[in-house]
Amino acid sequence: MGKKNWIEFDNQQIKSEETAHEDNFNKRSKINISKQKKGKKGKTITLIKGLGTQDEILLKELLKKIKVFCGTGGTLIDSYIQLQGDMVSKSIEFLRKEGFHNL
Predict the structure, then answer these.
(1) Residue range 31-41, pLDDT digits in tens
(2) Which of 11, 44, 47, 63 has the fewest C-beta atoms lying within 10 Å of its C-beta?
(3) CATH code for the domain of 80
(4) Which residues does the chain have with pLDDT short of 70?
(5) 87: how many CB neighbours lie within 10 A of its CB?
(6) Residue 93 lies inside a defined structural domain of this protein
């Protein structure tokens, strides 16, 4: 079988663009992590504030990574990350692995 429609491409350019996006966080900003009772029937949520960027795309990428790490659901509201449940210790651990030090 011939490779009639085979197109080869290089992923290096895409990978370099992804690493460029990761550097846009201000990792020295003060991050506040707290838990609150909010919503339906007083369920507990974890609220992460002060990530040092207003870029919604970067925040959504970070939200996806932290949800996978914590094994829980979450959402992005007004540049704050909300996670379902009491995930304070797990979110601190994740953010330290990502390079955020001022927690």
Answers:
(1) 999 999 876 68
(2) 11
(3) 3.30.780.10
(4) 1-4, 6-27, 39-40
(5) 24
(6) yes
Q: Give the Cα separation of 27 and 78 in Å (integer).
A: 19
**Considering the domain boundaries, does residue 55 fall inside one?**
yes
Helix (H) or strand (E) run with residue 91 in it: helix 88-98
- Which is nearest to 62 in space by CA: 33, 103, 91? 91
- List, in sequence order, every beta strand (DSSP E) within the chain: 32-37, 44-49, 74-77, 80-84
Residues 63 and 31: their CA atoms lie apart, in Å, by 15
> Coil, helix or strand for 30?
coil
Query: What total number of domains does the chain contain?
Result: 1
Residue 16's pLDDT is 58
Give Cβ neighbours of residue 53 (< 8 Å, ≥ 6 apart).
24, 25, 26, 59, 79
C-alpha triplet 79, 76, 42: angle, nearest 5°: 115
